[in-house]
Design goal:
5 strands, about 45% helix, 5-stranded parallel sheet, 8 helices, about 210 residues
Length: about 210
């Protein structure tokens, strides 16, 4: 699923916060994801968490980094300013992170860089497991990511999206104050609408 499809799914805003050509450094929630199977969940979490905590408090690279900015500098700066990192783990994430995967040990593996930096800085890291994701305890990681296997994970399954989002939101709110209060009905309605559009796109991709 490409970026344009994801923007359509969440009705993403086209305006991007900029400060002298770089990303804002106000983000308290960092969403880490791989650009294949995890991107739809990252976009969905971004939209819903932004409604609760404010767009400037949620960092997702494809939305938050301004065009023309130094990608590496912006990403590492955002990690340094975050309080909670949500690491989206999808079905194919394991294959791309396991020791057998060539790029897992590469300095160009940005998921590894993000997670390792967060661990180094003592930032709260919460693995978010999607449907079909592997057990973290079964995976082997390089030394700078080894601690990741011991972090308590949460589920974010599109089949149980209402309840799973509420749990994620409640956990994040332990560290970051909410910018807005939404009724349970409003959250459920928005999530159902977004989830149905996500499912349409997932089915379209699977049938290609």
């Amino acid at each position: 699923m490409d970026v344009q499809s994801l923007c359509w799914i969440v009705g993403e805003r086209t305006s991007i916060s900029r400060s002298e050509g770089s990303a804002h450094l106000m983000e308290s929630i960092f969403i880490s994801y791989r650009s294949a199977d995890d991107a739809y969940a990252a976009a969905l979490l971004d939209e819903m968490l932004s409604q609760r905590f404010g767009h400037n408090n949620v960092f997702r690279a494809s939305r938050s980094i301004a065009p023309g900015s130094d990608y590496q500098t912006a990403l590492l700066a955002a990690v340094g300013s975050t309080k909670v990192m949500l690491v989206i783990v999808g079905r194919s994430w394991a294959a791309e992170t396991a020791p057998a995967a060539r790029h897992a040990f590469s300095p160009d593996d940005w998921v590894r860089k993000e997670v390792a930096k967060a661990i180094e800085l003592g930032i709260v890291v919460i693995p978010i497991l999607l449907s079909g994701a592997p057990r973290l305890a079964d995976l082997k990681f390089p030394p700078d990511m080894q601690k990741f296997t011991s972090f308590q994970y949460m589920r974010f399954d599109y089949k149980n999206i209402d309840n799973d989002f509420r749990r994620v939101e409640q956990e994040v709110s332990r560290y970051i104050p909410r910018a807005a209060e939404l009724s349970k009905d409003a959250i459920a309605s928005t999530l159902r609408n977004l989830a149905s559009r996500v499912e349409v796109m997932r089915e379209r991709d699977e049938n290609k």
